[in-house]
Amino acid sequence: MYKTPISVLVVIYTNDLQVLLLERADHPGYWQSITGSQDPGETLYQTAVREVFEETGLNALAYELQDWQIANQYEIYEEWRWRYAPGVTVNTEHVFGLCLPEALSIKIAAREHLSYQWLPWQQAREKVFSDSNEKAILGLPKMVI
């Protein structure tokens, strides 16, 4: 079954603006926030909750999950296009933020990620490979005011 070209990006952060980053298992050295495609019948909010749980073991409903009302369109990286129907080259990504009271230990999904780290937002922004992820983290201080 092909992935839907609609996804979420969830920036998980703390009150003091530490940001959680995950290292991709399929591309070591690529760091990112939580991402994932929408499943049929899901709302974007439900997708964000599911992806947070799958990738970290955290229940997003126990914290403050906000739809930042940002949608990015980008060309799907060539190396990942096989996951989508033939001819699909563009994805629409919806950005959410999840505020935690402090940097928590998480349980990474071993098939998806190699490791995780918490970084100050300025360092996290520089470490992520995706432009849209960098922009979301760059906007974090304005989103939490």
- Helix and strand run: EEEEHEEEHHH
The tally of strands reads 7
| Backbone shape | globular
Spans where pLDDT lies below 50 across 5 or more residues: none
Main beta-sheet annotation: 4 strands, mixed
Helix content: 10-25%
Distance between the termini: 41 Å
Question: How many domains make up the coordinates?
Answer: 1
Q: What's the alpha carbon Rg, rounded to whole Å?
A: 14 Å
Q: Based on the coordinates given, report the CATH architecture.
A: Alpha-Beta Complex
Task: Kindly report the spatial arrangement of strands forming the biggest sheet.
Answer: 4-1-6-5
Structural class: alpha+beta
Classified by CATH, the class is Alpha Beta
- What do we call the CATH topology? Nucleoside Triphosphate Pyrophosphohydrolase
Q: Would you identify the CATH H-level superfamily?
A: Nucleoside Triphosphate Pyrophosphohydrolase
Quickly count the helices.
Answer: 4
Mean pLDDT: 95
Strand content: 35-45%
Any overview of this molecule?
- The radius of gyration is 14 Å and the shape is globular.
- Strands 4-1-6-5 form a four-stranded mixed sheet, with helices on both faces.
- Helix 2 (121-127) runs antiparallel to helix 3 (131-138).
- The model has no long low-confidence stretch (mean pLDDT 95).
- It has one domain: Nucleoside Triphosphate Pyrophosphohydrolase.
- 22% of the residues lie in helices and 37% in strands.
- It has helices spanning 44-56, 121-127, 131-138, 140-143, and strands at residues 6-14, 18-24, 31-32, 34-37, 64-75, 90-100, 113-120.
- The longest helix is centred in the middle third of the chain and has 13 residues, at 44-56.
- Strand 2 (18-24) and strand 3 form a beta hairpin.
- The chain is an alpha+beta fold.
